[in-house]
Structure formats: structure tokens, C-alpha cells
């Protein structure tokens, strides 16, 4: 049997600092709004305030049968997946639950609940009676979703730091190509916790304000939380995952290769996989964290790939925060929304920063609020992510008329 090379993203559910659901997120994104970027004094161990991208949507508890896996991370995930319940039910009906797989990226799992349990241990001398370590295991996100929707196919999690959500989409497509599944629920999820905020703070990587990607005044990241979950199938749908490129330059545990060689290769691999040239790309969702090193290397990589004809580009992290293991899935979700018919004006996600250019960095190419795609014919958008350990992923999503 010859299986189709292209995988299609039939629907997406998402919850993040921009809001909950496709309509709310799309509206806030294109308006350049920052409804969930808030100042918190509860995350740093030294009590210092820090800006984060927080989900403000109330999240219901998990059903009683999933209590051992209950965490904020799991609740974000199930809220996003709930939005594509119809698509999941249709896949179960079409193929049977054993042929529907789950692949999710995450880097925190239920660590926030582990932090609260340790605090209780120090205070009371014992762990809370309802604490179960299972919610902190990295694979718990995939198990929770599979159990909640009674899916019996392959279910596993990927944890390659900030590229995990994008890795999950590429892995889901591989399962379809290999005939190991007929439909895959793919995406990423991460929640705010003290571990990540204090860890990045210890590295000197957290912004004193809201992150300011590609500005001369950039000073670090704004950490966020969120989830994005797709229904992926072989049958044609509204948006195709046309290409994926993955590299690991292994330059450093916590710093990107200065020239962006690994990211550049991931982008070129994605283009080759999709059978496209750089000039076919109409927009790029940048990783754009706002750190000195990331923005410099990403600018170099983009200029080498696209030359003097760079398409509109933007980083949405000033609106979402850096959602770590969910970042790649949310970046793909923003591209998915941009490609839909509902985007009548063909607007692109804007880039919010202070407008102060830095020599050698992207500037003129950065999209402003209200900027629109101008080309006709097939549209192909790119989403890039880079992560600790030199993990780079580039995804190309497309809509072919």
C-alpha cells in the first residue's frame, strides 16, 4: 500500500495568553493585543516580579477517573483538545480507537503540582494524600489525553525542550506515513511553574519587562503557558503539513550555535521535504525569543536562506510568552489560523517590539499590525523553533487552491 506523503491538519484547539479557542485567539493575535501578559510576584523564589504569558480562562478539573494525572498542565491540554472533540470522535468512528494515535510535546508536565507537594512536605512533614507522582511524569500528557478520549493507538510524549511541540507534528506525520496510525492527535502543552521561571532567571535569560524580540534593547524571554492540539489525517483538509526539517547541532546545552547553522539546515530540509524554494514562502513565524543570542543567530539564518527577498516575519512571543514545549505547536497553530478563509484580509501575525533596530538583525521584514499577504495562488507559511541542546525544527504549512 502506498501511503500519502502529505498530512493534513483538519482542526485545532488552543488555549494561551491570547485567549481560548480559534476565534478569540485569532482576533487578539491580529489586533496586536496582549491580554494575558501579566506581572506576577508568585513565581520567583526571591519574590521579584516577572512578566509572564498566563492563561486567564478558567480550567475545569479532570474527570474523577483521571484524578491521578490532574494538573494545570493536563487541564490546559484537555481544554485545547475539548475544542476538537468532533474531529476526534470522527476519527474514532472512521478508523477505530486503536488506529488513532497521540503524540504531544511538553517540558514541564505536572511539575507545578510537584512543587506544591514539596512545599506541603516541608510544612506538614508529609506529602498531600492526593498527590500522585504520575502527574509529573513527562509521558503523562499523552496518557491523559488518550484515556480521556478513549484512544487506544500509540500514545507518547516528546520532550526536546522548546522544540517539542513542533517535533510532535513531525512525528505524527511519520506515524501516518509508516502506516502505524490513520489519525493522530498532535500538539504541545506547557504550564507556568517556578522551576522554569527560576531556571531561566538563573541563566540571566528572563526579560525585566515584556520580551522585545529583535530590538537593540532586547534583554531576555517572557515565559508563558498554553496548549495547541491538532487532528492530523491523510485525507485532504483545510491546511497541509507540507514539510518538516529537524536538526540537532549539539553546540551547547543552553545556547544556540552563533551563526544559526543548525536552524538554517532545518529550514532548508523543510523546504526540500515540501518540494519548495525559499521564494515560495509567504510568511515566517519566527522563534524570536528576545535573547541576545537567539535573535542574532536566527537573523543570520533567515538572511542566508532567503537572501535579499525575505517574506514578512514575526515572533508572537510578546503576545503569548515563550510557551516552551508548546511553542512549536502554537506557532504552527497561528500559521493554521492565518491560512483559513476566515482571514478574509489575509492578515499576518504582527511583530510587537519597541521598533529600535539592531545592526544585522531582522527589522524591515518584521510585520506590523494590519500587514497582509499580497501574493496570489498557493500559500505556504513557515514556523521555526529552536531549543536547548541545539534542537531545531522548521515546519511548512500550506493551502493549495
Question: What are the defining features of this structure?
Answer:
401 residues; alpha/beta; Peroxisomal Thiolase, Chain A, domain 1; 2 domains; eleven-stranded mixed β-sheet; globular
Walk me through this protein's architecture.
The chain has about 400 residues and is α/β, with parallel strands linked by helices. The protein has 2 domains: about 230 residues, Peroxisomal Thiolase, Chain A, domain 1, CATH 3.40.47.10; about 160 residues, Thiolase/Chalcone synthase (Peroxisomal Thiolase, Chain A, domain 1). The protein contains 11 helices and 14 strands. Strands 1, 2, 5, 6, 7, 9, 10, 11, 12, 13 and 14 form an 11-stranded mixed β-sheet that branches. Strands 3-4-8 form a 3-stranded mixed β-sheet.
In short:
The chain has 401 residues and is α/β, with parallel strands linked by helices. The protein has 11 helices and 14 strands.
The name of the CATH architecture of the largest domain is 3-Layer(aba) Sandwich
The number of distinct β-strands equals 14
Please tell me the total number of domains.
2
Oligomeric form: single chain
* Average pLDDT level: 95
- Helix proportion range: 25-40%
> In CATH's first tier, which class of the largest domain applies?
Alpha Beta
- So, the CATH homologous superfamily of the largest domain? Thiolase/Chalcone synthase
State the major sheet: 11 strands, mixed
- Low-confidence blocks of residues: none
